[in-house]
Amino acid sequence: MGLFSFLFGTPAPATALGEPVAPESLPADGNFPNTLSIEEAVFIAPSAMACGAKTAKAVKNRCAVFGTVANGSFRKGDTVIAYVGGKPVKALAHDVIEAERGWSDNLLTNRQWSKGEDITAGKTAYIILELTVEPDKGTKIVKL
């Protein structure tokens, strides 16, 4: 391990973190109690000045999605299912941040980190996922 790798961490792997989910274990009718429709998805790499060194390292090169909660609710620490390449993948929601409509280039510097409260149906939110690949746009983030 080199000095820079030790100081700045290693780059995120090229494959999705998370575990595959068997499609037959999901509701056949597609009705989930908690859903968020993905409008945008981007990778984030916040600076330590924006959110602290520990948080910056934890979410570096992870995917953040923006969308509207269709039903149910989401909160920090939830285990969610995202669709990557048409296949369901289980991932951790590092943070769920309520936001106005529209995408921010400086997601973590312009927004407050969540306090752990639920983001409920009808609200727009950012969800920072433990994924290193983008989920399919136009699909949903779901929680059983």
Explain the overall architecture.
- By secondary structure, the chain is mostly beta strands.
- Helix content is 15%, strand content 38%.
- It has 4 helices and 9 strands; from the N terminus they run αββααββββαβββ.
- The strands form 2 sheets. Strands 1, 2, 3, 5, 6, 8 and 9 form a 7-stranded antiparallel sheet that branches. Strands 4-7 form a two-stranded antiparallel sheet.
- The protein is globular, with a radius of gyration of 15 Å.
- The N and C termini lie far apart (40 Å).
Overall geometry comes to: globular
Number of helices: 4
Number of strands: 9
- Helices and strands, in order, run as HEEHHEEEEHEEE
First-residue to last-residue Cα separation:
40 Å
User: What's the overall average pLDDT, rounded?
Assistant: 81
Task: Please mark out the parts with pLDDT under 50 across 5 or more consecutive residues, or reply none.
Answer: none
Strand % is: 35-45%
Rounded radius of gyration (Å): 15 Å
Please outline the major beta sheet. 7 strands, antiparallel
**What structural category do the secondary elements indicate?**
mainly beta
Portion of residues within helices:
10-25%
Q: Mind sketching the topology for me?
A:
Layout lengths: L2 H6 L10 E2 L13 E11 L3 H4 L1 H7 L2 E10 L1 E2 L4 E6 L2 E12 L8 H4 L8 E2 L3 E6 L10 E4 L1
Antiparallel strand pairs: 1-6, 2-3, 2-9, 3-8, 4-7, 5-6, 6-8
